[in-house]
């Protein structure tokens, strides 16, 4: 099994056939690539770069140019029964692409697999740009942000439930103390009741003579006891309702205060933000298209200059219209324009290319600024939506409290009426009992009343203890689930911490990966004048909208050695042109490995390696040939001869 290749790429047949017409400088050609290394060998201006562009086009890249004298071009790549096609068409001064390419999104491949001279990664290093945006561009952070929002909502809900459990737990000591107190009171009442009953039994009374009076009295006493018990129950319920109402009113005040601090959401502001986000997304997409088109134009014009520069006469003959010097001068000073066919001064095209590069860099910076603005708008919109959600939840809670207050106030009014009625009924019963009392029987009546009262108190206390027991049991059952809730909350907190630091960690891992691979590549290539190349990741405070935020900055650092072996740190700006090109290539090659480009892109393309000697070119090919099904390298003939690994050679395009 080849390292790094996913199932899709391992299933690619051994040969891939590319058919091209009107791409770059190619009129029409067909080339078959076999798995492994293919070397495009030849002099400059032999359409090797154009063939690489055609491969890029078929795979999905927009960085391919249409032949200057053609209105339409095609690149078709066949893998066994699978066919991938890309059409380029000139419309209104621009190149429009269509078809069904291999890649849905070619950005990663454009950055780190299609390593032509104009490759953005190579050029960014050569210019000394901050490399963060380029390294992190393939990383999708929107999904991470969506996950953060989901986990934050779950954490808020768990916090509410845990806070409720904390309140219940705080009630337990009071309830248990009350239960203990009730147990003591019940024990004391039971002792008093037993003593009162014994005293009543020992009282010497002529029960037979008083049977009729006692029977009526007992009935009234029993009725009085029941009524008092009912009155006490009503009083307890009144107290409970009042406590509940008081607690609800306190909560209502808190909820109202919270509601005042929230906003129901300004729909106009939300609509404005959504519209701005749509606009910024459109602008970003348009800028990306414009950057791609600028890159294609720059690349094509550079290729045009290279090709026309290389088409020089080998020697002068007697039939020549002028001396060789004149022919060379003419070829070097003017170039045929690919848009109108007229002759244009070479320096004018070179100036235009530099202007296009400057415009492209400006567009890249604009896209970066728009990305920052997009993040700010999305964050603001997310905050507004979270505020709206909390506002709705708080309003629902306030409405629920109001409804509960109304219900409890109604019950309280009914209980107060019941209490008044029971109080009047007790007064009547006590009057009747007083009328039944006689001097001879008054002691017995007092004892009956005492027993009656003690029984009533005992029943009330036992009932109250049962209610507390039930409440404590319910609280303890609910608290049993707190461990699971806390564990879940800890998991969510860990997830949030991981998500919030994931981008930071991705950056750190990416920088570490780039540094490791660049070190390995430099070691393999054996450059004595470049001891080390690494990316230094720092944090800088930048203004984003109305606020200042910290952003990462990726700066490329270089260590070199003097003739006497002393190491010192240098910058890209102090390197020679060839050293900058080598550094840019090493960076781009490291990006290929860091981002696992070989898992999704079946081709790796290398071009413009003249800054590297033949032996090191061979080492680069050997280093990468096991990672990708098709490694295609454009080389001069003398460099191609140094390639040691088994490879195919294409010299006629």
From TrEMBL:
Q: Where is this region: Disordered?
A: 198-228, 248-271
Q: Where is the Rad50/SbcC-type AAA domain?
A: 18-232
Keywords, A to Z? Coiled coil
Q: Which InterPro entries match?
A: P-loop_NTPase, Rad50/SbcC_AAA
Is Coiled coil tagged as a keyword? Answer: yes
Pfam families named in the record: AAA_23
Which residues does UniProt call coiled coil?
374-509
Write the protein's name: Kinetochore-Ndc80 complex subunit Spc25
């Amino acid at each position: 099994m080849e390292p790094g290749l996913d199932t899709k790429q391992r299933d690619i047949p051994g040969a891939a056939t590319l058919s091209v017409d009107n791409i770059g400088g190619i009129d029409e050609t067909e080339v078959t690539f076999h798995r492994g290394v293919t070397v495009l060998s030849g002099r400059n201006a032999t359409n090797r770069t154009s063939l690489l562009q055609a491969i890029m086009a078929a795979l999905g890249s927009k960085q391919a140019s249409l032949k200057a004298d053609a209105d339409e071009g095609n690149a078709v790549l066949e893998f066994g029964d699978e066919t991938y096609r890309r059409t380029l068409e000139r419309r209104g001064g621009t190149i429009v692409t269509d078809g069904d390419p291999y890649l849905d999104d070619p950005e990663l491949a454009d950055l780190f697999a299609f390593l032509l001279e104009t490759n953005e990664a190579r050029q960014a290093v050569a210019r000394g740009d901050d490399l963060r945006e380029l390294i992190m561009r393939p990383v999708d952070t929107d999904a991470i942000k969506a996950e953060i929002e989901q986990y934050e909502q779950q954490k808020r809900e768990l916090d509410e439930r845990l806070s409720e459990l904390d309140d219940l737990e705080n009630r337990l000591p009071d309830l248990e103390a009350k239960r203990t107190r009730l147990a003591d009171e019940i024990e004391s009442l039971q002792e008093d009741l037993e003593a009162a009953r014994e005293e009543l039994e020992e009282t010497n009374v002529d029960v037979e003579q008083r049977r009729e009076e006692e029977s009526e009295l007992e009935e009234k006493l029993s009725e009085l006891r029941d009524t008092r018990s009912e009155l006490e129950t009503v009083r307890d319920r009144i107290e409970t309702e009042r406590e509940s109402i008081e607690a609800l009113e306190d909560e209502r005040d808190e909820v109202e205060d919270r509601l005042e601090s929230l906003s129901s959401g300004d729909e106009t502001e939300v609509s404005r933000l959504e519209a701005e986000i749509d606009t910024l997304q459109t602008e970003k997409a348009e800028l990306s298209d414009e950057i791609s088109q600028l890159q294609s134009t720059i690349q094509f014009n550079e290729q045009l200059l290279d090709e026309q520069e290389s088409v020089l006469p080998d020697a002068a003959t007697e039939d020549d219209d002028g001396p060789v010097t004149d022919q060379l001068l003419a070829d070097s000073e003017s170039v045929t324009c690919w848009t109108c066919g007229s002759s244009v001064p070479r320096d004018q095209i070179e100036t235009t290319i530099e202007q296009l590069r400057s415009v492209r860099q400006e567009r890249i910076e604009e896209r970066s600024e728009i990305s920052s603005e997009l993040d700010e708008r999305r964050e603001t919109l997310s905050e507004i939506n979270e505020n709206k959600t909390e506002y709705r939840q708080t309003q629902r809670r306030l409405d629920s409290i109001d409804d509960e207050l109304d219900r409890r106030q109604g019950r309280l009014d009914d209980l107060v009426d019941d209490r008044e009625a029971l109080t009047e009924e007790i007064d009547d019963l006590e009057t009747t009992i007083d009328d039944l009392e006689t001097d001879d029987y008054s002691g017995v009546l007092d004892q009956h009343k005492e027993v009656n009262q003690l029984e009533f108190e005992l029943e009330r206390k036992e009932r109250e203890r049962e209610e507390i027991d039930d409440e404590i049991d319910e609280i303890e059952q609910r608290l049993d689930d707190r461990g699971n809730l806390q564990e879940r909350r800890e998991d969510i907190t860990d997830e949030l911490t991981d998500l919030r630091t994931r981008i930071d960690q991705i950056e750190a891992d990416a920088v570490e990966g780039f540094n490791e691979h660049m070190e390995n590549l430099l070691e393999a290539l054996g450059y004595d004048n470049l001891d080390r190349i690494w990316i230094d990741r720092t944090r800088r405070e930048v203004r984003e909208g109305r606020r200042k935020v910290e952003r990462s900055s990726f700066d490329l650092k270089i260590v070199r050695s003097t003739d006497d072996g002393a190491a010192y740190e240098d910058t890209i700006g102090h390197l020679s042109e060839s050293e900058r090109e080598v550094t840019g290539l090493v960076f781009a090659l490291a990006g290929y490995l860091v981002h696992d480009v070989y898992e999704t892109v079946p081709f790796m393309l290398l071009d413009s390696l003249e800054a590297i000697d033949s032996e090191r070119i061979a080492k680069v090919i050997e280093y990468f040939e096991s990672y990708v099904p098709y490694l295609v390298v454009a080389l001069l003939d003398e460099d191609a001869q140094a390639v040691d690994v088994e490879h195919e050679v294409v010299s006629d395009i």
